[in-house]
């Protein structure tokens, strides 16, 4: 048995939002190439992501949003047949193509299937190499490159379908996970810890006062060592006190110093360190159970190296 699962699906490559868009299929190619070249991929239990059931999407989203995205996708298919444009716009940064609906179901389905496999004891932890990402998707709104909130859906799934009492969400993307906060704020079965550059898109999270949110807004040019100190002081004591039975990670790698969508200064070793600290908490309280899902990370080389570092820690390589 490989200790770490790796969930993905070819549909996640087919979703794209137009030429030059940073959230592009090549991100997954970069990750796959790196795992192949380094041999890290050989140590992972590779699984095909199933499609999420609509009822599972509705654990985190309003039924109207799910219906609206499906309707938009169906209308796009009709428009394309009639010679119309290849994309349906959701916001200035986010659009659907003809494959987005299936990709979004696979992205959420990956986190759900990973949750099932980890809770069944088939693997200790898992990483989902998927797109579209999820942490900006709110209960009623898709936005910011995200369609459905993969991690919030999986966290709710662990509570509602598996009967867990406490799950933690760790979000180390450079952007505030406003969608996840929107979905879980005030639900004390879930604790969310995050840091994010502020001010930066989506310009939220700095003034949150909710008992289950640990938000750490940090200024541009914050380096890894400063982030590590904050995590040690602010995340770890809350996570230890909460004693999560499972930990979900919104794994965005756009706080990397080579990433142009943020201006922070993390490097691969920082992602390895964060992953190790989260893993320590998971081993103490949660039988090691972690499900991590890809969010941002737009410099292809830095993304691939950072995912490798994250996976080496998850898989004890
Ligand atoms: Zn991001």
Summary, kept brief:
The chain has 317 residues and is α/β, with parallel strands linked by helices. It has ten helices and ten strands.
Q: Keywords for this structure?
A:
single chain; 317 residues; alpha/beta; 8-stranded parallel beta sheet; two-stranded antiparallel ribbon; 10 strands; 41% helix; binds zinc ion
Structure commentary:
The protein has 317 residues and is α/β, with parallel strands linked by helices. It contains 10 helices and 10 strands. It has helices spanning 11-14, 26-38, 54-57, 63-81, 100-119, 150-160, 178-184, 224-242, 268-285, 300-314; strands at residues 4-8, 45-48, 88-91, 94-96, 125-128, 167-171, 190-197, 213-218, 246-251, 290-294. The strands form 2 sheets. It has an 8-stranded parallel sheet with strand order 2-1-5-10-9-6-7-8, sandwiched between helices. Helix 2 (26-38) crosses helix 10 (300-314) and helix 5 crosses helix 6. The longest helix has 20 residues, at 100-119. The mean pLDDT is 98. Zinc ion binds next to loops. Zinc ion (ZN) binds at residues 173-175, 252, 254, 295-296.
Rg, alpha carbons: 18 Å
> Could you say which small molecules are bound to this protein?
zinc ion
Shape: globular
Order of helices and strands: EHHEHHEEHEHEHEEHEHEH
Task: Give the mean pLDDT.
Answer: 98
Relative strand content: 15-25%
Structural class: alpha/beta
Helix content bin: 40-55%
Query: Order of strands across the biggest sheet?
Result: 2-1-5-10-9-6-7-8
Can you count the helices? 10
Q: Largest sheet at a glance?
A: 8 strands, parallel
Query: Quick one: how many beta strands?
Result: 10
- List low-confidence stretches: none
Distance between the termini: 14 Å
